[in-house]
Structures are given as structure tokens and as C-alpha cells.
Design goal:
Layout lengths: L4 H26 L10 H23 L10 H22 L5 H8 L2 H13 L5 H18 L3 H4 L3 H23 L6 H23 L9 H28 L2 H7 L2 H14 L5 H18 L7
Helix pairs in contact: 1-4, 1-10, 1-12, 2-3, 2-9, 2-10, 3-8, 3-9, 4-12, 5-8, 5-11, 6-13, 8-10, 9-10, 11-13, 12-13
């Protein structure tokens, strides 16, 4: 399926916002380089959502999108929230404090590989040759970028494994969203998925972090503001738009530049080291996107 001009513009903006957010999150929960002061990760994510939800609500009001969800649809909306947001945000915000921002992004964006596996296992989807090559190129890029990181993971192997689990659940959620028959505007679904996740995050930080709550420092507030407006006000709606209007493999492979941007922005902003694997992976990710998104006519 060849992407439209609108989908490509949304993809570009989404890549920039989400890619830069990995070092932003790292700063928010782990502190500034050279003077780290960890902030409770669940509280950070809960505050980002609390301030982001009104931004999303304002968008619905401006666009005159209804908020109402019929009672019969609530179970499916809750399931979509669990698979697409709750598991992902709980795991990743905790894991990013234990891993480098770039490598956290890479682990998270193994999602396209899981999307292809879920499609084959549950819905018997067969990949075209170009799609299979794209998935293989993305997988090789992930392997290369992880090659020098196994010693770092030895101190927190649970974090690396947990992010992979989150990526697998997110991939399943992408399929479920694509196949959803909910007769609701997409922004309505996104708003209530975000609201459900906000409640879950708030309850989790209240239960597990209440004893270490404190007023956020200026750099934490800046990270919260970026997440509130950029991630929860825009990026999630943009991603769900792509996931619902494009095939799961195409939409997921199309965002593979996000971890690449995460790696290089982490290196620039946080001083995280780059190696030859990073540069090779860039070429592989670009190849993966081209193989999946370009039609055969475009590649002649």
C-alpha cells in the first residue's frame, strides 16, 4: 500500500517528536548529564499524561469530535488501551532509567518484527518479498545496534527483556487497532485510551512511589511539557492514524527511523557513545522503510 502525502507528513512529524523524546525522557527520569537526580518514573509519566490529556481534549473540541463512547464499546476500548498504551508506558518509563536512551529506543522498536510474527501466527498473513526483506533489514539493524550493549545489560537484564515484551504487546495492539470495527472517530478512541492509561499510571505511582514524590526540577518540568504536548497531544494520535490507515507491517516499519533518531539525539544531547554499528544500522533502517513503503513502480 503506497502511503499518501498526508501519511508521509504525519510520519515525518511523528518521527521527529518520538525520536527526540527518548533523550528527553532519559533526562526527565534520570537527571541531567553530570548531575543526575532521578525522578520517580511512574510519577513522571503520570504527570505527562495529566497535562497532556487536556491538550488532546482541546483538539477534540476544536475539531468538533464527540467524546461519547457507547457502553457496548467500552470493553474493546479498554483492551485497545491495555495493548497499545498501558503495558508500553508502564514498562518503558521504568526501563529507560536503567538503559541508555538510544538503546531503549532500539529495543522498543523491535515492534515491526513482532508485528510481522503476530500477523503470520494469528492471521496467517504472508509477507511479500519486499516486506520480508524490509523486516529482515530492520532486524539486522537492531542486532547491530545491540551488539555492543550486552555488557551494559548485564547490570539490568530485566529491563532489556521487559522492553522487548512491551514491544511485542504493542505490535499485537497495532494489529487489533487495525482490525477494530469500532464505529467511533479515531480521536475519540485515542482520547479514552489515553484517559484510561492516565488513571492506571496515577494509581501505580500513588501505590509504589508516594513516599518519594517531590516537586519536579525545571529540567523535569521541561521534559513533562514536551511529553504532554508532543507525545500525548500529538504523537499518539498520529501513530494510531497511521496504524489504522496502513497495513500493520507497513505502518510499523515506517517508524523505524525513530530509534535511529533516538540513538543520535542521545549521543548529541547526552554524550552517549556511537559506534560503526550505529552508522550501518541507519542504512539498514532506511532500506527497510524504502522496501516496505515504496511501490514496485517507484523502485525501478
Amino acid at each position: 500500500m503506497r502511503p499518501t502525502a498526508r501519511q508521509l507528513w504525519v510520519l515525518v512529524l511523528l518521527t521527529l517528536v518520538w525520536g527526540l523524546n527518548w533523550p528527553v525522557m532519559k533526562v526527565g527520569v534520570s537527571g541531567l548529564p553530570g548531575a543526575p537526580m532521578a525522578y520517580p518514573p511512574l510519577a513522571f509519566r503520570a504527570l505527562s499524561m495529566v497535562f497532556g490529556l487536556p491538550v488532546l481534549a482541546a483538539a477534540l473540541l476544536w475539531l468538533k469530535v464527540p467524546f461519547t463512547v457507547p457502553r457496548r464499546h467500552w470493553r474493546e476500548v479498554a483492551l485497545l488501551a491495555l495493548l497499545n498504551m498501558v503495558v508500553w508506558h508502564v514498562i518503558v518509563i521504568i526501563a529507560v532509567s536503567q538503559l541508555s536512551s538510544g538503546r531503549s529506543a532500539i529495543l522498543g522498536y523491535t515492534m515491526p518484527i513482532f508485528a510481522a510474527l503476530w500477523g503470520f501466527a494469528l492471521w496467517h498473513e504472508r509477507l511479500a518479498l519486499r516486506q520480508a526483506l524490509g523486516v529482515a533489514a530492520a532486524a539486522l539493524g537492531v542486532v547491530l545496534l545491540l551488539a555492543g550493549e550486552f555488557t551494559r545489560f548485564s547490570g539490568a537484564p530485566w529491563a532489556a527483556l521487559a522492553v522487548l515484551v512491551a514491544a511485542a504487546v504493542w505490535a499485537l495492539g497495532t494489529h487489533q487497532l487495525r482490525r477494530s470495527t469500532l464505529a467511533l472517530p479515531l480521536l475519540t478512541i485515542v482520547f479514552w485510551m489515553t484517559a484510561i492509561t492516565t488513571v492506571v499510571m496515577s494509581l501505580l505511582t500513588l501505590t509504589f512511589e508516594r513516599g518519594v514524590w517531590r516537586a519536579p526540577e525545571p529540567h523535569v518540568w521541561a521534559s513533562i511539557a514536551y511529553n504532554a504536548v508532543g507525545v500525548f497531544g500529538f504523537a499518539h494520535a498520529a501513530w494510531f492514524y497511521l496504524a489504522r490507515t496502513m497495513p500493520p507491517v507497513a505502518s510499523s516499519i515506517s517508524v523505524m527511523l525513530i530509534p535511529v533518531l533516538g540513538v543520535f539525539s542521545g549521543a548529541l544531547l547526552l554524550g552517549e557513545a556511537l559506534h560503526w554499528q550505529d552508522w550501518t544500522a541507519v542504512a539498514l533502517m532506511v532500506a527497510a522503510i524504502g522496501l516496505v513503503l515504496l511501490s514496485p513502480k517507484d523502485t525501478r
